[in-house]
Amino acid sequence: MIATQYVWSFGGADLLAGLDTVGMLGAVAMVAVALTYMLVLACAAHILTGRRKRAGQGDRSPRPLQHPVGKPLQIVVLMPCLNEAAVIGPSVARLLEDPNPALHVLVIDDGSDDTTSEIVSAIADPRVALLRRDPPNARQGKGEALNHAVEIIRERYRDIDPEYVIVGVVDADGHLDPTAWEVVRGAFRDQTVGAVQLGVRISNRRASLLARMQDIEFVTFTSIFQQGRRRMRSVGMGGNAQFVRLAALNALGRSPWTRSLTEDFDLGIRLNGTGWVNEFRGDAAVHQEGVTSLRRLIRQRTRWFQGNLQARSLLGFIARRLRGRARADTLWQVLSPYLLLAGSLLVISFLLMLALCVINVIRGVPQQWSWVPGTYLLAFGPSYLYALVYWLYEPDEGAGPVRCAAWCHLFVLYGLLAGVFGWRALAREFLGRSGWAKTAREAEHGSVPEVIAQEAQP
Fold first, then answer.
1. Is residue 202 part of a domain?
2. What angle separates helix 263-272 from helix 324-363, to the nearest 10 degrees?
3. Helix, strand, or coil here: 334?
């Protein structure tokens, strides 16, 4: 009996050692792949060539549209709303600061039970219109609201070539840079461009550390990756500050937007399969409110993660309609949520091992600490790249490289929340739960227009 126990004990120790080795190699491989992917896109975007360089300046000769006299680009901004009485008036007013008569705003009130519609109806500018959606048709998802609006646009502009009609989507809390309209109109002078996505910044990043993490996320992952994807022809669309030719939307059928929780993600993938070019312009941005409550952040990001899981339905479309680098990168985008779920298991394993080491230290058991430097580099090594990118991308923040490095160490820890979002989203998907309430607006920290104005100064 004693001999048997010894054999099993010996075998168990070998098994645990083997699992530990496999886990470590798996963690190294996953971090290496993710970091390599980011480096490839960063090099493709040429983002590290100068402190003041802005992305999106164009890397190919545009093929300009020949605008006939009296036939300028018609821009219709769709602003989906649900109980946005607190912000809708100033938001529409900011859009109308551009005096161009070819700019129109269509506010979509998707069943609000506050005074959103009344506020919009009271706006005297003839360029503003209201689409009121009432139950039972209302609150069926952002995609359904946008599809309803695009039907109205098709009818209103039926006598104009749809290549000259641009449909934009701006959230009710979105604040565009003063140069945004010039950037958008300039991008669509290229007749091959079917859609343009502007950059995204978090307007209250200076008031909340959690909001700062979201801003770093958008800069290092969203904006930087989008810049690299311009070379791969795999630029995606975001839910805020997206602009699409009506002709490109028509190529997707009667209902361009899906019922997915991330209808913007689906739209970008499907547009890339139409022959039109998706463009990203980082030289102008939309500033949106960041979530400062961890509870609300988990709720919001769970919704986004679940929407990305739902994009698995597009795998066949990607295989059939996309080619080359665009296909490979888009497959990575669709499958990366599942990689994150697998990676979260490695994180749990590491945390358990760390807890065991702490317990042993408390008990006075001697420990080997040679693994600490390697583990630190594995976990926090990428943070130095994130810090460099963030510092070079926005030097006007007034933060030096040391502070950016500290922020990005915290950002690595913030990234661990993806495991919480992911498993919660997977559970909801498994249970067939896809309904969501709108994320509540938070009190604004200072004047967002003032922040934008400060950033616009040379």
1. yes
2. 140
3. helix
Let me know the angle formed at the C-alpha of 197 by 194 and 201, rounded to the nearest 5 degrees.
175
Task: Choose among 339, 337, 328: nearest CA to 231.
Answer: 328
How is the chain split among helix, strand and coil, in percent rounded to 5?
A: 55, 10, 30
CA angle 49, 51, 52 (to 5 degrees): 105
Task: Let me know if residue 14 belongs to a domain.
Answer: no
Q: Which helix (H) or strand (E) holds 413?
A: helix 401-415
Name the residue type at position 170: V
Q: What is the CATH number of the domain that holds 339?
A: 3.90.550.10
> What pLDDT is recorded for position 264?
95
- Whole-angstrom Cα distance, residue 182 to residue 198? 12
Judge contact between 213 and 189, C-beta under 8 A. Answer: no
Residue 203 in any domain: the answer is yes
Q: Is 22 helix (H, G, I), strand (E, B) or coil?
A: helix
Q: How many CA atoms lie within 13 A of 394 on its CB side?
A: 27
What domain range is 282 assigned to? 23-458
What pLDDT does residue 169 have? 97
CB distance 318 to 331 below 8 Å: yes
89-102 mean pLDDT: 93
Structure tokens at 446: 């200072």
With contact defined as beta carbons under 8 Å apart, do 202 and 218 qualify? yes
Question: Which residues pair with residue 106 across a beta bridge?
Answer: 78, 129
Residue 252 belongs to a domain: yes
In this predicted model, what pLDDT tens digit does every residue of 392-437 receive, in sequence order? 876 666 788 899 999 999 999 999 999 999 999 999 999 998 877 6
- Residue range 11-37, pLDDT digits in tens: 555 665 666 666 667 666 776 777 777
Q: Which two tokens stand for residue 30?
A: 């996953």
- Pairwise CA distance, residues 425 & 15, whole Å: 33
How would you classify residue 161: left for phi > 0, otherwise alpha for psi between -120 and 50, otherwise beta? beta
Buried (b) or exposed (e) across 32-68, using 16+ Cβ within 10 A?
Answer: eeeeeebeebbebbebeeeeeeebbeeeeeeeebeee
Look at the chain and report how many structural domains it folds into: 1
d(CA 116, CA 57): 38
